[in-house]
Structure formats: C-alpha cells, structure tokens
Amino acid sequence: MKTAGSMLKLLCRRARTLTALSLTPLLACLPLTGCQSKPELVAPEVVVAPYGATNMQTPVFAVAPLRNESGVSAADTLRVGDALCARLAEVRGIAALPLNRTISAMRALRMSEVRTPEDARRLATAVGADALIVGSVTAYDPYDPPKMGLTLGMYARPGSVLTTQTSAPLDLKAMQTLPDETNWSAATFADKPLSVVSEHLDAANHEVLMNVQRYAEGRHRSGTALGWERYIKSMDLYTDFAASWAVQRLMQQERLRVARQRVEKPANR
Questions:
Q1: CB atoms within 10 A of CB 73
Q2: CB–CB of 231/209 below 8 Å?
C-alpha cells in the first residue's frame, strides 16, 4: 500500500508532465513568430507633372491663402493652404513654395487678398513663382462622415515657363478682326486661369471612400485598428486627402491643356 508521501510525489510528477505537454506547442511557435518578416512596404501613388523634360527650368508653384466660402467659421483655410503646398511638393517635375513665403510677400505688397487676375500675376512675380494657385474652401464639415469642397484656379505670371514652353502664341491680329459683338480681346484671354478644378468630397460617397482608400496605400501602417479609415476619422488627415485629390485633378487638367496646345501649335504656324 502506497504511503501518502509517495502518492504526493506521483501527483507532482504528473502535474509537471502535463505542464510540459501544454507548453510544447507554444514553445514550438516561438521560433516561427520570431522569424516572421515585417509587413512589406508599399509606395503611395505618385503624381507626375505634365510639362515633360523639354523645359530646362523646373516650374515653381505657390499657393495664395484660400477664401472661406463654406459658411463654417471653424474652417481652417491656412491649414488647407499648407496641405496644398505639401501635396504640390510631392508632385514630380515641379517645386512648391511654402505658404508662409506667399503670405510674407502679400504683406510686403500690402495685399490683403488676391482679388483679381492682375493681383495673382503680381504676387506670383513677387515670390518668383511660375504659377499661383488661388481659390476657396466651399464646404467644410469635420463630423463623421467629413466633407470638404475646394475650388482652385491656377494663374501664370508673365513670362512663366508654363506659358512660354507649353502655350501656343496668341494671334492678336486675328483677334482684332473678330466681330465686335463677341467683345473678345487679348486681356480677356490673359485674365483666364490656365486650369480650374472644383471638387466636393463627401466621405458618405462610396467613390470618395474608394479614393481615400487608394490614397492611404503606402501612407499608414497595415494591421492597425483603423487602417485606411483613419483618413476619414481625423479632419486633419481628411484635409490632406482632399488637398492631394485637388492637386491630382489640377495636374490632370494641366495635362489636357498642354496636350491640346501642343496639337494646336503646328496648326498656327
């Protein structure tokens, strides 16, 4: 008959055996976990300027402080302007000036805001930019789902590489012979922006959400709790997306303008 001591030793031995068996699968997984590779990095989409390699000089862009036409006093137009400058700086083939430099030039010129195309060209010349982007915030709602509207126009300074290299020359003599009822003039063409975009980005729209998800690729860590949705949960991040989308659309409009003028140029010779 076994004594109480021997029974206790037997129970302890069995307990140790069961513990070792239960830990074996965990220990077997540890080397595999330690050897797992980190998530592969993915580069975000890149926007390329349409001006090509023929221009020896890199075009310089500047952004004027935006107007707030959203009807929401909380709309931070300076924050949106900074986001536009940052997104322009990411475009390959152009350079972008910081918003503070444009504001400093406006103070030196005693210009409270850009009201006319002439103001835009004068400011672009003052900061040494080939093009100045002016516009307004037309919608702003930071609550879920966020909304932002932007209207932007791009004006070129006189002698800019954007006009001397990509624009077809105006036939002023032909314009002077047009019928009087059209009221066309060289000044009318000069006052028009090179390109204009108007976007209303409502995160309740599934197409907008798809664009946000595409924008987030390569800009956040995979496996996080929110993932790409962090760009619709923070108005600051949604502003970055809206600025990126507006810049991308602006470059698309510029690509169409440049292509159209390159086709028209031989016909005017």
A1: 7
A2: no
CATH code of the domain containing 243: 3.40.50.10610
How confident is the model over 61-118, as pLDDT tens digits?
999 999 999 999 999 999 999 999 999 999 999 999 999 999 999 999 999 999 999 9
Range(s) of the domain holding residue 127: 60-163+194-268
Nearest to 159 by CA among 167, 148, 149, 151: 167
CA 9 – CA 1 distance, rounded (Å): 15
Find out whether 76 and 88 touch, Cβ atoms under 8 Å: no
Distance in Å from the first CA to the final CA of the chain: 118
Amino acid at 107: R
Residue 246 lies in a domain: yes
Pinpoint the alpha helices (H) of the chain: 4-35, 77-89, 99-108, 117-127, 161-164, 172-176, 186-190, 206-216, 230-233, 235-268
